């Protein structure tokens, strides 16, 4: 088995996902750039390669069973296994004035769309990639979440958590709950799985609002994707440490 570690990052053609791929590439990982849009995906691969990373493109729509199955087959052909999976692809869903999603007027189809990508898509990709991860001696899974997923913070009136986002925030809470279930299932195995909060990062996802750069936002996910064998699992992290559920 090659000593070069293999990673797959979903939604890696731009923003935080791209910087996660770049950071892992800089650490010597061979990185699969998972993205739906062919042009953006190949542009990201070219940019990563120009920067010295060993990158390859992986056509990937996390909402499609066929796309995810084909992505797993591509990673197997390209690398034969997977050492790190970073589930970064996600959407906020349509918002109203003030970047808000009012629960009293919420379109149920919007909720379904957000959950399909942010939760079901993660389950779909993770399960498709598990056979490849199990071939690794130190498999790691990182689910990119958000501090708005924290029910503790959301329920505390003294904590500023941002606008009400009745589709997006609960979808990330759901993702965190799923992360814990995987960690329970992997107990006693060598697969470490954690959730990562990038913070409020200035990308097109946030309308370029936020004090953090994509590189800063990628740091926690990169750390969790490269944990030592005695590292934590089933936890929720930001730069400063553990986030309360």
TrEMBL record:
Q: Which Pfam families match?
A: adh_short
InterPro entries per record: CBR1-like (IPR045313), NAD(P)-bd_dom_sf (IPR036291), SDR_fam (IPR002347)
The source's domain of life comes to Bacteria
Q: Which UniProt key words apply to this protein?
A: NADP, Oxidoreductase
Alphabetical list of SUPFAM superfamilies matching this protein: NAD(P)-binding Rossmann-fold domains
Q: Write out the transmembrane intervals.
A: none
Q: Which family does the record assign?
A: Belongs to the short-chain dehydrogenases/reductases (SDR) family.
Q: What is this protein called?
A: SDR family oxidoreductase
Q: What is the lineage of its organism?
A: Bacteria, Bacillati, Actinomycetota, Actinomycetes, Kitasatosporales
